[in-house]
């Protein structure tokens, strides 16, 4: 149990989980693409989708999106009208998922899906609502509740959602400069910084973008080693937890995995190059930031990096050789690793239990409120392909329970019993919790996590903030209370819904939904 535990939730959810987002009603929105052939899940009531622009099926009576209910372990089909292949997404402050772009007739489309209790709510689509084709673009929620949409194939620019009348795109030359012969600049890594600017990483290079004044205000050294880190040489990235108890606030980016810059072309010719086995950390808040490199236990391309409630990072899914793309990956990496940012140098990685299912291209992973990681997808083929191939299309859904969920830690596990549902910036609030075996208050922290939109080895909008607290009290029995404060600014934590976790001695509670406003 100290290497974690896998559990199969469904052998088939009918579609391949290429894109995944947790909503505030504890439901997951999952979807693949429409130009994929028929899925294994029919649309309800004999409904069919008719699309004369579809490149595979003009009339399709199967679903390519589902709504999955975590509590009941059940799902229902949703209807997507235009192609969502390799698209992007963000959750607005009111909890509505805004999904942007895709391929073919979907590349200028925005789609919305609001959390609802009804069983008939579905996608709404808005054609021609993007100024440019957004295929392999990345989104980031901003402090004012808008969304910035950056890049895409042959798109060296960015734009905002919602789009005001007459607004277009703004050129970002950096994206063109970062492109090489294999591209390797798609799905750029975006992280909102505490000063309100945007960290942008593509291929091997990174900048700070002042998107209000439309100018690059800082450029960092290239990451060491020469390996490319963005699609199709897909590594992954997280902004490490922002701790408001530390002054001045430290801002640090972690990037792990990737591939040689020619790995995609080599794979196309039948040679699968060894993936990158390094991680790089860049402390942006330093006066002279420099990359510090570390070796992972194994090479990995197409891995997903997920922030865990205790501040650790799990790296899950992926391949040991090749690149992202059709038939381009080999040697599946079925063992996740957990990275402890505060561990000693050379002692930060732990290798976890192996899954029995290879998940490489088009696989996904998201954190859910009870602390498990849900994992799905895996399709390295142009269409659904279940036989006669080394790695068949995978329609299953699994969960991985990190070691902190082991019964071994039950006596240290806190349980939140009282929490305010709405938190204001800098406003004081109380968290009451129970724990059978309390250690000490110095081992308690209150953390908020923004649930991200996950696709193609990157979790857009993912962030964790360790909230400031100043006193704690023993209430009686096994009940305690901690006084904490809402995040300092919307740049630290943009408005919207978060999961709040109380962590005691490294063991997190289940998350409670709160709204920051």
List keywords for this structure.
2 domains; 517 residues; 45 strands; Immunoglobulin-like; Galactose oxidase-like Early set domain-containing protein; 6-stranded antiparallel sheet; signal; Gal_Oxidase_central_sf; Methylamine Dehydrogenase, Chain H; globular; Ig-like_fold; mainly beta; 2% helix; 7-stranded mixed sheet
Describe this structure as you would to a colleague.
There is one protein chain. The protein is globular. It folds into two domains: 5-405, Galactose oxidase/kelch, beta-propeller (Methylamine Dehydrogenase, Chain H, 7 Propeller), CATH 2.130.10; 407-516, Immunoglobulin-like. Strands 21, 35, 37, 40, 43, 44 and 45 form a seven-stranded mixed beta sheet that branches. Strands 7-6-3-2-38-39 form a six-stranded antiparallel beta sheet, with no helix packed on it. Strands 1-33-32-31 form a four-stranded antiparallel beta sheet, with no helix packed on it. A hairpin with a 2-residue loop joins strand 43 (496-504) and strand 44 (507-508). The two termini are 39 Å apart. By secondary structure, the protein is mainly β. This is Galactose oxidase-like Early set domain-containing protein. It comes from Erythranthe guttata. Residues 413-516 form the Galactose oxidase-like Early set domain. Keywords: Signal. Residues 18-404 form the Glyoxal oxidase N-terminal domain.
């Amino acid at each position: 149990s100290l290497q974690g535990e896998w559990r199969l939730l469904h052998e088939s959810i009918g579609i391949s989980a290429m894109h995944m987002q947790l909503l505030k009603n504890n439901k997951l929105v999952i979807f693949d693409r429409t130009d994929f052939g028929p899925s294994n899940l029919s649309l309800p009531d004999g409904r069919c989708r008719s699309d004369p622009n579809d490149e595979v099926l003009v009339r399709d009576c199967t679903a390519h999106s589902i709504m999955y209910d975590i509590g009941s372990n059940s799902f229902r089909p949703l209807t997507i009208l235009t192609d969502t292949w390799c698209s992007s997404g963000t959750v607005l402050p009111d909890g509505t998922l805004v999904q942007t772009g895709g391929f073919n007739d979907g590349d200028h489309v925005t789609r919305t899906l609001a959390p609802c209790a009804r069983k008939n709510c579905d996608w709404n689509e808005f054609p021609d609502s993007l100024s440019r084709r957004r295929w392999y673009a990345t989104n980031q929620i901003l402090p004012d509740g808008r969304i910035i949409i950056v890049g895409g194939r042959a798109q060296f620019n960015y734009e905002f959602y919602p789009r005001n009348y007459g607004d277009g795109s703004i050129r970002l030359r950096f994206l063109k400069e970062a492109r090489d012969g294999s591209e390797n600049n798609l799905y750029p890594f975006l992280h909102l910084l505490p000063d309100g600017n945007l960290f942008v990483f593509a291929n091997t290079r990174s900048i700070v973008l002042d998107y209000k004044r439309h100018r690059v205000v800082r450029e960092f050294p290239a990451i060491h080693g020469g390996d490319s880190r963005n699609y199709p040489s897909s590594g992954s990235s997280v902004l490490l937890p922002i701790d408001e108890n530390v002054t001045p606030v430290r801002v640090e980016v972690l990037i792990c995995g990737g591939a040689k810059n020619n790995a995609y072309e080599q794979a196309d010719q039948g040679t699968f190059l060894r993936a990158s086995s390094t991680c790089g950390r860049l402390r942006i808040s330093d006066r002279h930031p420099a990359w510090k490199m570390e070796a992972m236990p194994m090479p990995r391309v197409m891995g997903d990096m997920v922030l865990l409630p205790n501040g650790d990072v799990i790296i899950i899914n992926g391949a040991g050789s090749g690149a992202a793309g059709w038939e381009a990956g080999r040697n599946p990496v079925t063992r996740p690793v957990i990275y402890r940012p505060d561990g000693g140098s050379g002692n930060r990685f732990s290798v976890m239990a192996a899954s029995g299912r290879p998940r490489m291209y088009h696989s996904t992973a998201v954190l859910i409120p009870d602390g498990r990681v849900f994992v799905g997808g895996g399709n390295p083929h142009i269409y659904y392909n279940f036989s006669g191939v080394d790695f068949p299309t995978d329609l299953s859904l699994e969960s991985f329970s990190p070691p902190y969920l082991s019964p071994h830690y039950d006596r240290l596990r806190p349980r939140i019993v009282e929490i305010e549902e709405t938190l204001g910036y800098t406003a004081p609030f109380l968290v009451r919790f129970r724990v059978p075996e309390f250690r000490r208050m110095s081992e308690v922290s209150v953390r908020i996590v923004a649930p991200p939109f996950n696709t193609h080895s990157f979790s857009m909008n993912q962030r964790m903030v360790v909230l400031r607290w100043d006193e704690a009290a023993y209430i009686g029995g096994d009940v305690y209370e901690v006084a904490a404060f809402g995040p300092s600014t919307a740049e630290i934590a943009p408005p919207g819904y978060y999961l709040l976790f109380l962590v005691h001695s490294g063991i997190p509670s289940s998350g409670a939904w709160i709204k920051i406003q």
